[in-house]
Amino acid sequence: MRxxxxxxxxxxxxxxxxxxxxxxxxxVGIYAKTAIEGGAVDSLTADPALILIIVGCLICCIxxxxxxxxxxxxxxxxxxxxxxLLFILLLQVIGATLGFIFSEKVERKSVAxxxxxxxxxxxxxxxxxxxxxIQKKFKCCGVSHDKDWSKNxxxxxxxxxxxxxxxxxxxxxxxxxTDEVLNTMCGYETQKLELWTARKQIYTDGCLDNIVKWGHxxxxxxxxxxxxxxxxxxxxxxxxxxxxxxxxxxxxxxxxRTIA
Length: 260
Fold this sequence. Notes:
- The chain contains eight helices and no strands.
- The chain has helices at about 1-35, 50-70, 75-100, 105-120, 125-140, 195-200, 205-215, 220-260.
- Mean pLDDT is about 85; it is low at about 35-45.
- The chain is elongated and about 95 Å long.
- By secondary structure, it is mostly helical.
- Helix 1 runs antiparallel to helix 2, helix 2 packs antiparallel against helix 3 (about 75-100) and helix 3 packs antiparallel against helix 8 (about 220-260).
């Protein structure tokens, strides 16, 4: 019976932690959704805040089943939790396998996604902040190179473009020193410059290559975190199976004693 209580409350603790985390995800998603300024257009493929709310609600429902089932020894809830968790685990493995097999297609989709983000850069403040963060974080500009910004209506280098930002790039592409004062106009007309001259003012490497390089440099960290989450899911699934077996064996013993 001690093992039963240990497994029960260990499983309950894991589910409760994820349940609280899902609540935080929902809260952040709702805050982000209400904080978006007056009807900003949809960003890349879907509203990130809405995705956060939906994922948070799904995790909340699933972990609630695990919490209640573990605490009350309700077999039907534990079985639903077990099969749902197993299904999610299989989806993750299949997704990772397909991503590896169709890596070239994933890369093309990523390029298209980033290019769409560049085109809509001025249409959505959240998207703009995200792209600026990526470019400053990875010290890059555009998808493949800085000239990608010509695909945006404001930065397009065509002669008929009346924008003051014509032939420029966002300030997040600029090479900034530690003591330098922020100059939001530092990227103006840099698309007209020769590559060796432009590199003195802005980052000319594309973000996609720099993100891939960062992934290779931090491969062990990313792999470790992914493996840790996978092992945690397997542990929770194993605890659920063991608890179900123990509940069933206890009920069988009770029935046998009653009959005897």
